[in-house]
Design brief:
Length: 66
Amino acid sequence: MTNYSGSKCPNCEWTAFETVEDTPLNSNYKLYFVRCAKCKTVVGIRDYLNTGAALQLIADKLGVKL
């Protein structure tokens, strides 16, 4: 995949990133870690589930307008 943003790893300056699923120690929830594809330095995290979509579904079922 092409890195159109020109983003670089803060550790090794590589320009390719990957997303991996993991559960941190002492956590009950999975997360997606965005990390450098070369040195594996984590540069960000994302929720495992789409929280916004889940909240909208709950609000719709409860008749609450968000």
